[in-house]
């Protein structure tokens, strides 16, 4: 298997992407490093946490091991089994929940604007819950903190918008079950008019 960060350079990945973009059949073209079997995925049981916009994302485990950008700007992945991705203003982390771990998620704003936070609970690679915090206003001094553990609801973020030490609980914008999260069918409306 390949680590997520090195996937684009793995044998066969670029060719597969070209085939997908060209809408060509994929049968028989999956290389040794590619599978359609979700059970082979390393993101089996845990939390997939992402922030979108000018916010830094840090995770600490119960042993104070860090996942996120270090003071020197380098990625620190000190938590066993955890992964970190930084794609511009979007940060993604996966933390495992297979041995009763507890995590502290810390958010640090880097500019004025808004941010969104998603916390997805995975079990056997399947989405069990997806918690959304959407378009939360921030200043460059805003901070947030959330405790994550195996059966946590992840629906309350302690948020300090002004950076003055006055945190307030911020309720999630939406909490979706795995079935609701997988529903991608747009709603349809039908209007019927009768009479003369």
Mind explaining what this structure looks like?
With 196 residues, this protein is mainly beta. It has 2 helices and 13 strands. The chain has a 7-stranded antiparallel beta sheet with strand order 4-3-2-7-10-11-12, with no helix packed on it. A 6-stranded antiparallel beta sheet has the order 5-6-1-8-9-13. The radius of gyration is 20 Å and the shape is globular.
At a glance:
The protein has helices at residues 13-21, 178-182; strands at residues 46-52, 55-61, 66-69, 75-77, 83-87, 90-96, 102-109, 113-123, 126-138, 143-149, 156-160, 168-171, 174-177. It has 196 residues and is mainly β.
Principal-axes shape call? globular
Number of strands: 13
Alpha carbon gap, first and last residue:
67 Å
Average pLDDT works out at 85
Oligomer: single chain
Strand order of the largest sheet: 4-3-2-7-10-11-12
Q: DSSP strand (E) fraction?
A: 35-45%
* Residue share in helix: under 10%
Would you tell me the structural class of the helices and strands?
mainly beta
Q: In angstroms, what is the radius of gyration?
A: 20 Å
Question: Biggest sheet, open or closed, and with what strands and sense?
Answer: 7 strands, antiparallel
> What is the H/E string?
HEEEEEEEEEEEEEH
Number of helices: 2
> Residue ranges: pLDDT <50 for 5 or more in a row?
none
């Amino acid at each position: 298997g390949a680590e997520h960060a090195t996937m684009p350079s793995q044998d066969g990945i670029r060719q597969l992407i070209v085939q997908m973009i060209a809408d060509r059949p994929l049968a028989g073209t999956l290389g040794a490093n590619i599978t359609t079997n979700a059970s082979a995925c390393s993101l089996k049981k845990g939390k997939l946490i992402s922030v979108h916009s000018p916010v830094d994302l840090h995770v600490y485990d119960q042993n104070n091991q860090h996942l996120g950008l270090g003071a020197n700007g380098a990625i620190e992945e000190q938590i066993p089994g955890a992964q970190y991705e930084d794609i511009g203003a979007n940060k993604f982390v996966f933390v495992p929940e297979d041995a009763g771990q507890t995590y502290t998620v810390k958010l640090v704003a880097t500019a004025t604007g808004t941010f969104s936070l998603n916390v997805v609970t995975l079990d056997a690679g399947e989405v069990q819950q997806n918690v959304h915090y959407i378009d939360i206003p921030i200043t460059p001094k805003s901070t947030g903190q959330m405790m994550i553990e195996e059966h946590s609801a992840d629906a309350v973020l302690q948020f300090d918008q002004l950076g003055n030490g006055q945190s307030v609980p911020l309720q999630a914008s939406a909490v979706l079950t795995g079935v609701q999260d997988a529903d991608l069918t747009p709603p349809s409306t039908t209007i019927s008019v009768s009479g003369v």
